[in-house]
Amino acid sequence: MKFFFLFLVLLSTLKSSPTLAKVNNSAVLPVPEDLNEPIREVIRKFKATGAAVSAIKGDLSYSSTFGTYGLTDLRPVNEETLFRMGSLSKFATALGVMKMVELGLVGLDDPLQKHLPWFRVDSHMAYSQQITIRHLLNHTSGLSREMGCVYSDFEGNWLKVEDLKPCVFNRTIHFKPGSALKYSNLGFALLGQVIQANAVGVYPKTRDQNMKAFDRFMVSKIFRPLGMRKTRFNVSQDELKNSITPLGPLLNDALTRPELKKFQSAGFNGPEYYLATTADDLLQLLKVARDIAEGRSNPILTGSLLSSMWKDPLKDFHSNQYYGLGVFGFSDDKGRFLIGHTGGSPGQRCYMMYDTETQIGVAAVVNTHDQAARDIAGILLKALSNSSVGIIPVMDATVGTGLTESVPSELAGTYANWSRVLTIVARQDTSGKLVHDFIGSDRKRKPMTVGSTPDTLILPSELAFTDHNEEPVKFTRTTDSEGKKTVTGLILSGGYIYKKISN
Prior knowledge:
Elements: H1 2-15, E1 19-20, E2 27-28, H2 36-45, E3 50-57, E4 60-67, E5 83-84, H3 89-102, H4 112-115, H5 125-130, H6 133-137, H7 161-169, H8 185-202, H9 212-223, H10 237-240, H11 257-264, E6 276-277, H12 279-294, H13 303-308, E7 314-315, E8 321-323, E9 328-331, E10 337-345, E11 348-355, E12 360-366, H14 370-385, E13 413-416, E14 421-428, E15 434-439, E16 445-447, E17 456-458, E18 472-479, E19 485-492, E20 496-502
Parallel strand pairs: 2-4
Antiparallel strand pairs: 1-4, 3-4, 3-12, 5-6, 7-8, 8-9, 9-10, 10-11, 11-12, 13-14, 13-20, 14-15, 15-16, 17-18, 18-19, 19-20
Helix pairs in contact: 2-14, 3-8, 3-9, 8-9
């Protein structure tokens, strides 16, 4: 009876009118009333509880919130609710780097080692010296996607940079810096260290505090001038109480204490992952995406510096994705672009894009996996532009791995982690051999290629943007009393675990 009552309260909250916000004295963008129910339907469909949306059209702005904080925390989501941005943090960190360029503290073509003398990759010492700030911003450094080791201990305490340096030393550089494109979370973690190293000189009292100078610089030089009152990488204990509950296939309201500690502060990987913001503040970042597209000056950077972030973007030739300096975009066959960034953290996903043709920007963040945020953004864009949303792409689609014939047929099934669900299906090819296909969030089948050992799967190297593609992915098995082996999960490089939830 108790859970039935909670369900009724949650349902009534989703049906209630959204919170409309007038932000920074901007004129409110009129949005069709019938837009609310399709957004609520997406929230219900993906078993989320709350969402925040923002939109701009010209100089008109719209910001709204839906639902509740969690399954049992029935407070209505509002303009004070904090969401984690995941990789959209890179967009903000890139703005911090560009501010340091404007202040003369950093040059885009400075070698990384100028600011981080300790940086090196032992297997590629010559390439280590060639990596520049620009290479890190546009993902052409050649560095691995991930750090390759954990960032925190089992109590949720972030490891110090000194403890993490050996992980960097043991990484690899996949090509000559500047010669190709490969998405790298590690690269933006290092950019955060560049800001930290230079900001310590501005805020000397933060010298011995983990990433404190970085966070203070971002708040004082980026967030506060933009009118982003609640946004930061490190949140206080009181602010943590205003964070929405992460949800997903394997998460619920009962986050463990270490997980909560990790949500409170940001360590080495904070600059590429742990930004916390609100609906109103996300709207301000969306306006920056517009300023980049149109070369508008704003309170933090000149129009010329902002436009340089999207000047001559690099194309990933395996997709329609483009990369500027911390800016991410897509195009259609008519040259129409959506630019901005997307991201996900445990149990939360966000999507922020500005349409350069219609001059409409949309952003959505929701406490469940990626397709929900993308679908809500598509609803907004379609409603405001009165046109097709075919350009809205599938974001961060996890892709197929490789396997040998000796991989058991029971590998087939559905797997899930904190934010994503993936499916592996078995079939016979034309010669009668057993093969497996992978189905990611784009719902397209991708045939798996050959792996190195029976217990190892390999992601295809040509799919450079997708998850963890440069290292083996292992799967786990258990053996019952009769000796039968059963696949129970996948372990991706970097420690990401997918649990098998059905056959």
